[in-house]
Amino acid sequence: xxxxxxxxxxxxxxxxxxxxxxxxxxxxxxxxxxxxxxxxxxxxxxxxxxxxxxxxxxxxxxxxxxxxxxxxxxxxxxxxxxxxxxxxxxxxxxxxxxxxxxxxxxxxxxxxxxxxxxxxxxxxxxxxxxxxxxxxxxxxxxxxxxxxxxxxxxxxxxxxxxxxxxxxxxxxxxxxxxxxxxxxxxxxxxxxxxxxxxxxxxxxxxxxxxxxxxxxxxxxxxxxxxxxxxxxxxxxxxxxxxxxxxxxxxxxxxxxxxxxxxxxxxxxxxxxxxxxxxxxxxxxxxxxxxxxxxxxxxxxxxxxxxxxxxxxxxxxxxxxxxxxxxxxxxxxxxxxxxxxxxxxxxxxxxxxxxxxxxxxxxxxxxxxxxxxxxxxxxxxxxxxxxxxxxxxxxxxxxxxxxxxxxxxxxxxxxxxxxxxxxxxxxxxxxxxxxxxxxxxxxxxxxxxxxxxxxxxxxxxxxxxxxxxxxxxxxxxxxxxxxxxxxxxxxxxxxxxxxxxxxxxxxxxxxxxxxxxxxxxxxxxxxxxxxxxxxxxxxxxxxxxxxxxxxxxxxxxxxxxxxxxxxxxxxxxxxxxxxxxxxxxxxxxxxxxxxxxxxxxxxxxxxxxxxxxxxxxxxxxxxxxxxxxxxxxxxxxxxxxxxxxxxxxxxxxxxxxxxxxxxxxxxxxxxxxxxxxxxxxxxxxxxxxxxxxxxxxxxxxxxxxxxxxxxxxxxxxxxxxxxxxxxxxxxxxxxxxxxxxxxxxxxxxxxxxxxxxxxxxxxxxxxxxxxxxxxxxxxxxxxxxxxxxxxxxxxxxxxxxxxxxxxxxxxxxxxxxxxxxx
Length: 821
Ligand code: GLC
Fold this sequence. Notes:
Elements: E1 33-34, E2 37-42, E3 64-68, E4 72-78, E5 83-89, E6 112-116, E7 119-124, E8 127-135, E9 138-145, E10 151-154, E11 167-171, E12 188-189, E13 192-197, E14 200-206, E15 212-216, E16 223-228, E17 232-240, H1 243-254, E18 267-271, H2 277-289, E19 296-299, H3 320-329, E20 333-338, E21 342-343, H4 349-356, E22 371-373, E23 376-379, H5 386-395, H6 397-400, E24 406-409, E25 434-435, E26 443-444, H7 445-448, H8 452-467, E27 475-477, E28 480-481, E29 489-491, H9 499-513, E30 520-521, E31 523-524, H10 533-543, E32 549-551, H11 567-582, H12 584-597, E33 602-603, H13 605-608, E34 622-624, E35 628-630, E36 640-652, E37 658-668, E38 676-679, E39 682-686, E40 700-706, E41 712-719, E42 733-740, E43 743-751, E44 759-764, E45 774-777, H14 788-791, E46 805-810
Parallel strand pairs: 12-28, 18-19, 18-32, 19-20, 20-24, 24-27, 27-29, 29-30, 31-32, 40-44
Antiparallel strand pairs: 1-8, 2-3, 3-4, 4-5, 5-17, 6-7, 7-8, 8-9, 9-16, 10-13, 11-15, 13-14, 14-17, 15-16, 21-23, 22-23, 25-26, 33-34, 34-35, 35-38, 36-37, 36-38, 39-40, 41-42, 42-43, 43-46, 45-46
Helix pairs in contact: 5-8, 10-11
This protein binds alpha-D-glucopyranose.
């Protein structure tokens, strides 16, 4: 790209717009002026001033350079069909933290250019991008949508409806403790939107971590106006034939959520805080005593000594190594919280070392900034620098050496409790702070703020690479910027034990999911306040069908463990834990698609049925993986749930009742029943539940077949070592199942990992096929069944045979109802 390097960036500090920031949902009032076009050229051609040359009064795009007034440049190019980039800059565009994989520019012309009001307008189908405006502190542009009102989705973690139009959204990572429906921003900023206009799908990603305001068709019905508080714009425009392929394009340049180690998708139990170690042991014991599957106990800030990161409280946790080893023997891993704020204590080695090396963020006068977080006076590592990230990574040996398996990065907006909350922007550090960056040129926090967590998460990833190179690592973060999915999953922060927050969790998690972050979950049961038994049971059932499944609660609440609400809730929790664990093969496969294609694990219904108008605004149902439709009950005392079924036939998971979509139904949903449906045409792989993912696994792979109207069903199963990196060298198996008119075909699409299962248990949920005898035939292995050692493998082919196929004709009678009243 032809940007000019090494020209100083203007770091004007703007405190004016930080007034009353937590309540403000309007961009600061500024006098922008329209950016006029001074000249244009194709790359390698001479600049032509409009009007000067009769030949060249039209603009050409892509592959064009423009000269604008206010000394700005604009460049347009394409990086694939339906993937354009428009850049505007004065001096230079810093290296992106979000875009890691941009294909070389190509010559495609799905974007055309014209001039309106002496300013360029780029048109892509129904979208016109123009109205370029300048202010010394910000740039603005608009996306005008042809015809009807646009629908806007994505934008990461937001409260309110999944469809985002009609509001102003603030992209500014914030420690917002009150998740009220109108509250914005929260902890994560992802300036990527999926826009549907006239049934066409477009994506806009404005890659600039400075504060942005998106007016999503609020001020003008058909226009999205974006203010970026910086002197450059890096805009990606996508066009695709569906929201799914749009997201694929976005994640192809910003990265996908990697496959977590399998234990990470098991159940996590947390509270602020399990303290001391005997309490952690008691919690673990109770899980096993109550026969509750679980993989992780998370330990909150009290494990540290005076909240000093990378230390252990000697009284509460005198022997962390023994504790973690004992827990591990019971099948529990430990995830510890890590906060970026370092206690400003000259006797504390982490502080001393960081101070000596000048690793902490400073104010423009050169003094280290001291804020306040849990440890009291605290300093903030400057994660803009690779040396600081590496130092941070090395600190993790204090955790890993005792057997810590995963890291939970909190408070990384970065939170700061000092000062008057009204004048402290969203309880985070002031914008005067500076990040030094690897170039040595200081950048103010007006520009680095939204990247702070990205730097911390990168440091944490590096910690895993450094200390545990054979492990995939497991990182959960509260804050992040676009592209965060490469390094971490997200939990949605400090919600409350309110029914409203259970309901809000659905669009919140979906918004993150369709903004590229697949590993997402909410604090099950609610963080602040006390959950009722009913709320906990409903939330627990819902969370069992979210990608990241963790219960967590604050320090001043009653106990929020599955056994804390009486035997009924205990039984319900056990039931959903068992269900979650039995579906791990299915869920793990969904995570595989996420890594490969950026396919979210949790999806809004419009993803699969973009043509169905009814689905455009559904906030309370979603797909979990390919086959499950989930319609959680999110209101107290409701025993019925309205469900809208999209096109197709739908099986009630619990009793196999069949519904034909599109249709509206009322579904009976007693307290223990999560309304759960399987799409006709699915084959769901699952297995016997275990107490944890390290426990001995059964040899039977269960396949539940839900035929569609044509008696056809299909499904895929991915398996690998479930930890480590060998799968990236091809050591995995991808198995395809198809069921056609009573015959199951099994095919290895990739066969480089021997599945644990040796036998398939097939269950067809369609009364047309009920029989009571089995007849199993294999194309290739029938003869070998004489050998008892080989008998079982006939059911599931061994890998390394090229394209292995068996046929089974075996229909099992349907079970009676399976749900809990
Ligand atoms: C923050 C986190 C919460 C955690 C608490 C104490 O509020 O969001 O999850 O429990 O800090 O560390």
